[in-house]
Amino acid sequence: MSNPKLTDVTGLLRSALSVNQQTAILAKEVPIYEVEFSELEFSEEISLPLSDWAVLALTRALGEISPNDVDSYLGLGATVSVSLLHRLLENGFLNSLGNENGINSNRKPTKAEKINESFAEATPKCYLSQTGFKALELGMIVQHRVRSARLLFSADPLFFIGIADEKKQNYVTHQRKRPLESADVPKSFHKFDALFALPSIERLSSCGIEATIPGLPGRFVGVKPGSQWEVRRSELRTENKFVQRTALLALAMHASFRDSKLNWKVYVGQARSNRVITPSINPSLFFDDDLNSLSSFLAALESNEKWPRLLGGNLREDGAFDVLCNTEFLLSLMGDSAIPADSRLPFTLGDWHGWLLIHTAPSNSEAGRAAFYTLLQRQDASLRQDFDLTCAKLADTLNAYWSMELKLPSAEEAASELWKKPALRAALCKRRLQTDLVLPYESAEVEK
Amino acid sequence: MIDTTSKGTVIHLGEQRLQGIYFVELPKEDKENLPYRKHQTMRNDIIHVSTDDMSRNAHIRNALIELISKAKHKVLFCSFLFADDKIVGALCEAAERLHGGVYILTALDKHLRAEIIDEPDSDVDKNTTKLQERARRHDEHLGRLAYAGAWLRSVEDCHAKFCVVDDICAVVTSANATQEAYESNPEDGFILLNNDVAKEFGRLFSYIWRHLATLESVPGSRLDVHSCKFQVPTWSNLTGESKIRPVATLRTTENSLLSAAIEVIDRAQKHISIATYSFMNMKNHPIGDALMRALERKVTIDLLVQPRNHIDEQRLSLAWLLNLSPEQVRIFGHRRTHTKSIVADGQTVLLWTGNLESRHGWLNGIEVGIVIDDKSAASAVSAWTKDVMLRHTHVAFNSPSMFELVTAGQLSALKGEWVLYLSPPIQTEFFVDALSGNTVELLEMNGKSVLRCGKELLFDITIDLENRRINVLKRYGKNIFVGSTSKGWLAESVVSIARQNTPLNYKNKNSRK
């Protein structure tokens, strides 16, 4: 797998509408496996059918009901009335009173009039169950569904990536690649039965599957016990060969000195579908280290990196770390922006690549001047408009960003220094145009 | 002369005359004993510089480089062409040293840059490869200048050649910034160490550069030409002292150059020395009128011009001047001359950058010049011009016959008697008129033989030497002379016209032996 790029990771976060400054981002590229389940269970709410609603409402009104009542008051005919009542009994919407000597003990008076004289049976007599009462109140009933589905997972860590795009399956079953032999199936997949049986909140933090699975209707219940599932590598055909598809898995957290517990979110990026797992994820799913608190997170970093101990206790309110840098370090962190901005300090944690948000400042005036020139070179358009003003503005902006009062180069000094850059000479020449070609001749024009 | 005999029409060729002044080249050895000489003005503030075309010592270029290298603030340089490596090097060095401050007016338009090959004011031999090489150098130099920090702009009709350094020194010269101009062509100019004059030229440069430019390439890592448009404010005419005065043609806004040329000519009482690259359409022109007035005052005129026989307007215009008073006018042709000056009585001189042509440079376009009323400065120019005249490469003939041209050393072709067979599409009467009423020249064009009658008529022919027969195949629809070589004049030929009954075609043209 290739190392993830910061631009891809921040792109993923942006597409998931994550606008917060992330104190730390961790990412890795993971191979995708396709797991085909023959029977996944879902519960699905559907609207109560009108005929059912009518029978249940009639039951509530009469207190009890028989096929004869259904036919007499609703006019559905003897056969339909009998079968309808039996189905509602079977589904638990009604309870049977039993053959209690024909006494209508629960019968309530009604002003409703029968619309015909029915010959349907007068038994069984039924009354409204709790389920029936609830269905009548909501106008909805919950149905149990069993579906086959192909879900995409990463194996290390075990994490739900998404569902296979059925529209893209242009092969028939017998043309598909054979599933992996059981020895080749990633070990983490053996936990499916147990994981899927967990309550949805726990299941989410354990493997990323929420109460629902995007793309499949209904609430996810689990795998039907004893049903089959098989695993294949998810592959992509490029230039006449198959390569394993990968997904970008990213974790991000925003730290605050007000809250010692860190809140991690997971983002999953695929070719055309990015998603964010919104509720908090326990990072222990992915890491052996304890990353739940800022101190343990920093300790995990510092044990792995050769950084100077820059970070201890310097967390800013906006979630970035204050870091004082020498020239080399400062320039290496400046990115491509033309104005001072927080940067991302790269690190690794196990096989994860990470970036820490830092707010840099120069540790000496030389570093400050170097940063000034680096940013100034990126403001060619502004320099061409007004060289001196651009220099002054940048100096002010930098000192404000650094919360310092460094003596940064004057416009004159900057002009001399930037001449070494041919691409900036237009700005420098525009700066002197007035002096060279306008002012000397103005007096001559006025005198005439 | 035409004879009509029983055999048909017979035409005697030789006495037919060319219209206007025609130049005949002199043998080269005639000029070897006439060395190049510098002519001093004996003044510290006005220095005459010229191209030493004999030793190839580039005085104009050296002077420019020295001034540019001493620049403390800025250099303003205007030249249509930039094909001289050393002057470009000096400008690049100045831009690097001064951190900008080098402003250039030159040709930037791609179309224009390509047209340099066909520049009408071309000051070198019409050698296509050489000219293409010069255009390539121009392009390459523009890139170098932009990289070094020079700011380039282009004004389409600006033909002026001048340089201003720090507003304390100006150079006005006939020389474009090319190696040929600095080393080979007779060119001259003035270095003017005069703050007022330099500042006026600086003001003019600033106005053209800032307001009239239509293309520019700002300093940067590469040449990046883009269009630009500026507001054009009012221009106040150039001013100067009576003894030394900058003048210019600034489109229709200022034409002090024209007034100055007339003034200098009108001032002459004895002699006028004129040097120009071209001399065209001067009849009924204010300058032509001034020259007529001078001749009426019995002033003598020596005129140095580049001999361009292929330009009818120049031949006619020169003939017009000579015919006004043949005993007062002398015309000298120099193959490479590009210098531009008018000196009256060795006392007043106008040195400028344009040419003696009808409108461009006088009533439109952009040219500059300097008028100096000073004997030493004027004498330096007239003496130097006289040296170039003495080294003239061509002699001027006024409306010469073909026979006179051959006598003067031009080639004679198809001597003796010939029978000329006309292919059916060509009418006999038309052809007889064309042949008898015009000078006839044998050309070789792309391996074919072509008869050129007068200015415009071209006939494709084959020549049968054994049978003394010339087959006229067809008339060319267009006058295309590119790549043609003269094989001589039909100055000693007698041709009988016969008609071919069937069309001649190219298959039997191999009859030339």
How do the strands and helices of this protein lay out in sequence?
The complex is a heterodimer of chains A (448) and B (513).
Chain A: H1 6-15, E1 24-47, H2 50-62, H3 67-74, H4 78-90, E2 94-96, E3 126-128, H5 130-138, E4 140-154, E5 159-163, H6 192-196, H7 200-207, E6 219-223, E7 229-233, E8 235-238, E9 241-244, E10 246-253, E11 264-269, E12 274-277, H8 294-304, E13 321-325, H9 327-332, E14 343-349, E15 352-362, H10 365-376, H11 380-385, H12 387-402, H13 411-418, H14 425-447
Parallel strand pairs in A: 13-15
Antiparallel strand pairs in A: 1-4, 1-6, 1-7, 1-10, 1-15, 2-3, 4-5, 8-9, 10-11, 11-12, 14-15
Helix pairs in contact in A: 2-5, 3-4, 12-13
Chain B: E1 2-5, E2 8-13, E3 21-25, E4 46-52, E5 57-58, H1 59-69, E6 75-78, E7 82-83, H2 85-98, E8 102-105, H3 110-115, H4 128-148, E9 151-154, E10 162-165, E11 169-173, E12 177-178, H5 179-183, E13 188-192, H6 195-212, E14 215-217, E15 226-227, E16 244-250, E17 254-255, H7 256-267, E18 271-276, H8 286-296, E19 300-305, H9 312-324, E20 329-333, E21 341-344, E22 348-352, E23 366-373, H10 375-390, E24 394-398, H11 402-407, E25 416-422, H12 428-436, E26 440-445, E27 448-453, E28 457-464, E29 469-475, E30 484-489, E31 493-499
Helix pairs in contact in B: 1-2, 2-4, 7-8
Give the uncertain stretches of chain A in residue-range form: none
Beta-sheet strand percentage of chain A? Answer: 15-25%
Taken as a percent bin, the fraction of beta residues of chain B is 25-35%
Strand order of the largest sheet of chain B: 3-24-20-19-18-21-22-23-16-17
Percentage of helical residues of chain B?
25-40%
Word description of this protein:
The complex is a heterodimer of chains A (448) and B (513). With 448 residues, chain A is α+β, with helices and mostly antiparallel strands. Helix content of chain A is 33%, strand content 24%. In chain A, the strands form three sheets. In chain A, strands 1, 4, 5, 6, 7, 10, 11, 12, 13, 14 and 15 form an eleven-stranded mixed beta sheet that branches. In chain A, strand 4 and strand 5 form a beta hairpin. The longest helix of chain A is centred in the last third of the chain and has 23 residues. Chain A is elongated, with a radius of gyration of 35 Å. Chain A starts with 5 loop residues before the first helix and ends with a helix. The mean pLDDT of chain A is 85. Chain B has 513 residues and is of the alpha+beta class. Chain B contains twelve helices and 31 strands. Chain B has a ten-stranded mixed beta sheet, with helices on both faces. In chain B, helix 1 runs parallel beside helix 2, helix 2 packs parallel to helix 4 and helix 7 packs parallel to helix 8. The C terminus of chain B is likely disordered. Classes of the chains: A alpha+beta (448), B alpha+beta (513). Chains A and B meet through helix 14 of A and helix 6 of B.
